[in-house]
Design goal:
Blueprint (H helix, E strand, L loop, with lengths): L8 E10 L2 E11 L3 E5 L6 H7 L8 E6 L5 H7 E4 L12 H11 L4 H14 L15 H13 L5 E5 L7 H13 L3 E5 L11 E6 L2 E6 L1 H12 L2
Parallel strand pairs: 3-7, 3-8, 5-6, 6-7
Antiparallel strand pairs: 1-2, 1-4, 8-9
Helix pairs in contact: 3-4, 3-5
Length: 229
């Protein structure tokens, strides 16, 4: 059931085509639960659905809105996006510089920028990385810095596209511990089905459509059975 205290992402008649090929077709959804997972085969359209949430992708038809606001700026303000590969997200050579990037674009005063960075580094135990070169970080450290770079902007929703793909078991567990503690709504695409245990809702995307939608204890076994036939 949708939590009325949380932001609601609404998809109305959303279709996406690329080069004349349909990627998503006639998607109608309201996403307002605390933790939502998205599963499906490679090429099913699930990553496109995730990218629509904050305006990285734009629908060919239909609208995507957050709390009724469908303009791209509203989506970008409300919804942060974490890429599968943190190298696609980390821009600056020093960790602190990378965390400052989005905040400077908001026109925040220097003392608030500093306070936000201090707080996010402390919250996730990343203080030792403040002055590190980003290209020298481990894969797990990069993913945490990428996540911190999104969270420092204080979005209301966090969307993650396969965030554990490049991580070892220890770093996967660390990432999931952080995600469980977040106050924000989390929407996560994942092939690692065990990571969706305890989520409120799971969407199964296949062939560009919503094939199933419900609690993980029902949707995930049905998805596995369908994919192993």
């Amino acid at each position: 059931m949708t939590d009325t205290t949380r932001p609601v992402l609404s998809f109305r008649g959303v279709s996406v085509s690329k080069g004349g090929r349909p990627i998503l077709r006639d998607v109608d959804l309201d996403l307002g639960e605390r933790r939502i997972g998205i599963v499906g085969r490679n090429g099913s359209g699930k990553s496109t659905l995730a990218r629509l949430c904050n305006g990285i992708e734009r629908p060919t038809q239909g609208t995507v809105a957050v709390d009724g606001q469908s303009d791209r700026k509203a989506l970008r303000r409300a919804v942060g996006f974490v890429f599968q590969n943190p190298d696609s997200q980390i821009v600056y050579p020093i960790v602190s510089e990378d965390l400052e990037f989005g905040l400077k674009n908001l026109g925040l005063p220097k003392d608030e920028i500093r306070a936000r960075i201090d707080a996010i580094l402390a919250r996730f135990g990343l203080e030792p990385l403040r002055d590190r070169l980003t290209h020298q970080l481990s894969g797990g450290e990069k993913q945490m810095v990428a996540l911190a770079g999104v969270l420092v902007m204080q979005p209301r929703v966090i969307v993650l596209d396969e965030p554990a793909t490049l991580l070892d078991l220890w770093n996967r567990n660390r990432l999931m511990t952080v995600l469980r503690e977040l106050d924000q709504t989390v929407i996560m695409v994942s092939h690692h089905l065990d990571l969706l245990d305890g989520f409120d809702r799971v969407l199964h995307i296949g062939d560009g459509t919503l094939l199933d939608d419900g609690p993980p204890e029902r949707v995930i076994p049905a998805y596995v059975a369908r994919e192993t036939c």
